[in-house]
Design a protein that fits this description.
single chain; two-stranded antiparallel sheet; globular; 2 domains; Pseudouridine synthase; alpha+beta; 5 helices
Length: about 220
């Protein structure tokens, strides 16, 4: 392709930059020239789902796509916390209390609308010019700035202790890992995000996305 967007279904275990690098390599091979490729918002390595990849001249519009609302399906594991907010971090047991489903529904309602959120220290946000996750890996103490985000919708899909499955329609800049942790804190049992899948970005849906293998990318 020349200029435009590609919708990619990112696999688990790969960084967003890794997806971009692989797509760039394939498109450059297909066209016989170096192709400019970028992404419009990262997905954590453990996460899967929709990425909008910009190609060629469309790269200049990347920030426009990154500001769009998004929909995620997430699994929240209760009773433990994680240093990274996800399955890849160091886990700590907090509580074996089993919240009632009615309690969980009540807590989810509290997060609807505009909320104040503190992004995870293991994130790509820059602190004094450096990525927060790089500082965290060095063991440095980081004070992450809070931000206002909007939760347009937060629905309970399933609850089978210790896992809650939710669907979250959120504004750009919302961290589902932070949301999972905040839900765990409110329930007073601790929680982390064990699975995360982005299913929609504005009008674009995961059903429209290609797997990397569809593009001949197998590594």
């Amino acid at each position: 392709m020349d200029d435009g967007i590609l919708l990619i279904d990112k696999p688990a275990g790969m960084t967003s930059f890794g997806v971009v690098a692989r797509v760039r390599r394939v498109l450059s091979q297909q066209t016989g020239k170096k192709v400019k490729v970028g992404h419009t918002g990262t997905l954590d390595p453990f996460a899967t789902g929709l990425m909008i990849i910009v190609v060629g001249k469309e790269c200049k519009n990347a920030s426009t796509y990154s500001k769009l609302d998004k929909v995620y399906e997430a699994t929240i594991h209760l009773g433990q916390t994680s240093t990274t907010g996800d399955i890849e971090g160091e886990l700590t047991n907090i509580s074996d209390l089993i919240p009632a489903e009615t309690k969980i529904k009540d807590v989810l309602k509290k997060f609807a609308g505009e909320i104040t959120q503190q992004p995870p220290i293991y994130s790509a946000i820059k602190i004094n010019g450096q990525r927060a996750y790089k500082l965290a890996r060095k063991g440095e103490e980081i004070e992450m700035p809070t931000r206002q985000v909007t939760i347009h919708g937060l629905d309970l899909i399933d609850y089978t202790y210790p896992e809650i499955k939710i669907r979250a329609h959120v504004s750009s800049g919302t961290y589902i890992r932070s949301l999972a942790g905040d839900i765990g804190n409110t329930l007073k049992v601790g929680a982390y995000c064990s699975q995360l899948r982005r299913t929609q970005i504005n009008k674009w849906h995961i059903d429209q996305a290609k797997l990397l293998i569809d593009m001949g990318i197998v590594d």
